[in-house]
Amino acid sequence: MIASLKRINELAVKNCNEGLTAEEMIERDRLRQEYLLDIRGQITSTMTSVTILNESGEDITPEKLVVEKAEQFQNEFLF
Questions:
Q1: Which of 28, 54, 57, 59 has the highest Cβ tally under 10 A?
Q2: pLDDT digits over 33-59, tens only?
Q3: How buried is residue 51: exposed, middle or buried, by Cβ count under 10 Å (0-12/13-18/19+)?
Q4: So where are the chain's domains?
Q5: How far apart are CA 41 and CA 27, in angstroms?
Q6: What percent of the chain has pLDDT over 90?
Q7: Domain 1-48 is of which CATH architecture?
Q8: pTM
């Protein structure tokens, strides 16, 4: 689970019940941006681990995805 999600939900409840201060609105916006980055990272990671096979078992993964996998793999081992 994404760590900031709990705080985002706390701020959402507070906003509905009593409203947020200016500082809390800034915190909420920052946390939302962090949350979106985390979600995008998870989706990218999942998508680059996918291999598509046809009914015959042949790899038909789109070339763009194969290239993305190769780039991600290469970036993991850069020093």
A1: 28
A2: 999 999 998 998 888 888 899 999 999
A3: exposed
A4: 1-48, 52-79
A5: 21
A6: 54
A7: Orthogonal Bundle (1.10)
A8: 0.68
